[in-house]
Write a structure and sequence with these properties.
2 strands, alpha+beta, 3 helices, 2 domains, elongated, two-stranded antiparallel ribbon, 14% strand
Length: 79
């Protein structure tokens, strides 16, 4: 991505990102969001992943999302 470069350490592992502010001055919002997503993804690439079903169950338990009972939903579609 023009205006963005990574600095690596002696083991060639990415350690820092350099952003040329003049280089990104003409970026639109979507391009800036892509840049931020890329930076976050790079920073988190070594983190342990969590299965979606576990995350969904935890969010439902905390009542942050509404997860309908799948059996009930199937029955209502048949009726």
């Amino acid at each position: 991505m023009k205006g963005v470069s990574f600095v690596t350490d002696e083991t060639r592992k990415r350690r820092y990102v350099q952003i040329d502010l003049k280089g990104i001055a003409n970026f639109d919002n979507e391009m800036l969001e892509d840049l931020m997503d890329m930076i976050v993804a790079e920073a988190r690439k070594d983190e342990k992943s969590i299965p979606w079903e576990s995350v969904k169950a935890e969010l439902a338990k905390e009542r942050k999302i509404n997860v309908p009972n799948s059996r009930k939903a199937i029955r209502s579609k048949r009726a």
